[in-house]
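Q: C-alpha cells for this one, please.
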Amino acid sequence: MKKLDVTTRDYKSGFRAKVIRRPLFAQKFMGIIVDFGGSDPQKLCGGAHFLEHKLFTKKDGDISQRFEELGASTNAFTTYNETIFYASFTEHWRQVLPLIFELVGTTHFTKSNVAKESKIIAQELAMYQDDPNWQVNYELMQMMFPKTSLAEDLTGTKSSLKKMTPEILQEIYDNNYVSCRMEFVACGGFSENQTKEILREVGKLESKYLISKKVAPKKLSIVNSQKEHNKIIASDLITSRVGIGIKLPDFKKVGLRNSTAQSIFEMMLQAKLGVTSPWFEKMQKKGILNSPMELQVSYTTAGNFATIIGASSKPDLFLKNIKSQLLEVPVTEESFVFQKKEALAQTIREFDDLSTIAIEEAEYGLENDSFNSASQAIQSLSFNEFYTAVENILNKSDIFTTTLKGKEEAN
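A: Here is the predicted structure, written as C-alpha cells:
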C-alpha cells in the first residue's frame, strides 16, 4: 500500500500544518479545517454552517473574487464534526496562501448581510425539507439524539435563522475559531524547499490572523434517547420511505479508533445490505426493496450513529427483513475479504485526487490520526478482528425506525 509523504509542523499556539508532497502534479490544494461542525454545542443551531457562508464576505466584497483573479477556485463545507475552507489552483501559491488565512481569520458581520444570508439559508433548508429521505432522517435523529444539534439540520431551523445576529455570529466565531482547533493542509507538487517555505509562512500567518487561546478539548457527550423507538407517519408518497437508525456506542469503549470503527461498520453494512450482497438481490426479487439504500455511518461529539434509508412498497416486511439481516445473519469471511479489497481499492483511487486526499488527511488530523495509519489499520485487519468488532458494536447499539407510509399502505 502506498503511503502519503507528509511533513507536519506544530506551532506554540496549538495550530498544526501539514504539507503533502505529490511530485509531478500540477494541481495544488490549500485549506484550513476547523474542529467545529454542526453537531457541536453552539448558541444557535446552524451556527457553524452560517459562519461557513458569511466568512467569504469581507469589507471590500466577496473574497472569492480575489481567488479567481489568481486562477484559483475556492469553496467550503460544513459537516457534523468540522468546517473546511479550501482553494484549488495550479499557480501563484504564494499569493493563495495568505488569502486562505484572511478568509478564515477575518470577519465582517453586519445586520444587513446577516439578515440577507438568513433568507438564503432558509430557502436552502426548505429545499431539503421537501426530500422524503430528509424527513425520515430528521425523525430518526429526533428519536436518537433529542434536544441536541444532531436533532436539527446542519443549516439550523427557521427559528434559529431568524434569531441570528452579527453579535451572536461573532460570539460563535470567537469561541470556536481558535488556533488550537484548526489545522492547515497543502497538497501538490511542492519541492522540499517550497515545503519549508510554506511552513515558515504558515507560522507568520497563523500568528497574524488566528485567535490564540486555550479551550477545553471536545468530548463525546452522553445523550438519552427518546423512549419511542418506532415512528409511522402518513404521507402523500406513492412508495413508502423507511429508515433505520442505529445509535452506536462510544467507539473507544469497544477498543477502537473512530476512523477504524467507522470503516468496519461501513464494511459490515455493505456486506449485509449493499447492492452486491445476496440479501439485496433477494429483496429485489421479492419486490420488498425498490432501489439501493442510503447507508451512512458517522461519529460526532453528540454521539455515533448509522442510518439506513430506502424505498419499499412493503415497509413492514422491509423492516422485519433488514433487522433480521443486521442482527442475526453473520458476515461470511468471503464477504469480508471482498469488502476489505473494495475499501483498499477506494483508498488507492483517492491517491490521484488531491482535494480528497488533502481533506481526508485534515479530517484525520483532528482525531490525532492520519490517512496512512487509518489505511494501515484496514489493511492489517483480520476476519476475526472484524467479526469481534462488529459484535461488540452491535451489542451496545440501539435501533430506531421511521416509516413514511405511502398512499396505498396508509389507506
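A few notes: Residues 230-410 form a domain with the Cytochrome Bc1 Complex; Chain A, domain 1 fold (CATH 3.30.830.10). The longest helix spans residues 111-129.
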